[in-house]
Amino acid sequence: MVGGFEVGAVPFNPDGWGPPDATVTPTxxxxxxxxxxxxxxxxxxxxxxxxxxxxxxxxGQGGAGGRKNAASDSVFDFTADDSFPSAADNDSSFxxxxxxxxxxxKFGPKWxxxxxxxxxxxxxxxxxxxxxxxxxEKERARRDRHYNQNRSNQNQPRREAAVFxxxxxxxxxxxxxxxxxxxxxxxxxxxxxxxxxxxxCGGLEFYDKSFDRITPKAERRLERFKNRNFFKVTxxxxxxIRRLANEDKATVFATDNILATLMxxxxxxxxxxxxxxxVGNKLFFDKRDGSQLDLxxxxxxxxxxxxxxxxxxxxxxxxxxxxxYINQNFSQQVLFRDGNKVAFDEPNPFANEGEEVASVAYKxxxxxxxxxxxxxxRCEVQSVVEVNKQRSFLTLNALNEFDPKYSGVDWRQxxxxxxxxxxxxxxxxxxxxxxxxxxxxxxxSADMMKLxxxxxxxxxxxxxxxxLAVVGYKPKDFASQINLNTSNxxxxxxxxxxxxxxxxxxxxxxxxxxxxxxxxxxxxxxDAFENDYVEEPLPEEEQAQPPxxxxxxxxxxxxxxxxxxxxxxxxA
Length: 572
Description:
Oligomer: single chain
Low-confidence stretches: 26-30, 59-88, 107-123, 150-163, 533-572
Order of helices and strands: HEHEEHEHEEHEEEEEHHHHEEHHEEHEE
Structural class: alpha+beta
Radius of gyration: 40 Å
Shape: elongated
Number of strands: 17
Strand order of the largest sheet: 1-15-14-5-6-4-9-8-2-7
């Protein structure tokens, strides 16, 4: 007796641990029933009841003998004695007091595949969204990998056969001297001191600041300037450069367009070529008549392929002509045409007396490459602004939108609210063109570079355009934004100059490989390219006519394509 309570005798099991066999009759006088199933001593431990696998699982689903164990997620037929009150039956009225939240089921990456490697449906909505994102990323990576393989492997079918054609036909008698991979260009670095201005020619009109307030909702029609002549004269045909060469002002001569092509070579995809002439101890970098350098590439670094047919308005060639036409007309429309000009030391060296020419100033500048070598280049600026009697020089260029489905960004919807996204898309699709414009602005020491956003009135009408916005950038800040390193730019130029100065006197050509990121140097005959004709951007016999409804309008605005010797007037 313990405190008035009879504990009873504890039976002894001589055969081992645990209670004696059920057939043994306890010696105690207690009235405890036999075969008592195990009952949990703590309700927080969901141990369940003893399972009886001898009974049919389909029976007693609603009773205590056939319930589903919540803890193990397995269906068992528990205790054979249904009359015994189950402690688990009272779970619905029981609440834990420990305050700990019930354990949440863990979802790992194993739901995607079962034992037969077949995809299974996700268990949660957020996992389904994540799964779709992962599949989209895999598909995008696959396309990128396929595209890069096409670009790097010449045996694979390439993105666009016409685009990857060499800019100049390699003749069998040409002797290839060297080939330089772009990977070596990225490691180069060279610093040059500030240049000095030797001669300034031409005249500039003032920039109209009202164009800075243009928005897609207040767009302006792009005008045509067929009476103004634009000159694309190569280095050796420039009378000022000839004079400076005769005066031994430098040993290397080029134009800003040619230098920018070399400086931004690593960003180029399309093929290009530059003629190099070694005359005595002097080096001249030239372009061929009708060279692709006179036009502007469009979607050069984009992954979206352009149509193959050359006569398609969205082919690479047609877009280059259209972009050159837009760029020239834009650079003249954003000016005050009141006759007020800023004149320089000499008039335009390429214009005849009384001829109306575009607003442009030529800066002949000299850089010191080393103690015995100087470089002279002709640089261009298109406009000037005057603030507090201080003049600032501007370069004017235009980006063009031809069809939003190629870029994926509609300028009319995004320019006002997401201008950064529009610029980022252009930097992705036209990395080389924007880098060359920035390099030319840096070479000319322009104070500001203006970028115009010009779009077609209708995606299928490549004759009529509107100006949607004009944005200004400081060239150094913009170069930093697009990761354009001036030391690397000059390092590329210096390495090519050093390489060419080791060659014998004669004529050579630098050709960007159409399918590989590299430049090849060929030795060519002295009379090479001299008999080449000037290729018109759109020959008259092949010129596409405007749509019938716009024919009169186009004729009234003077859609022409006049190309003369040393003078190219690109019009759509």
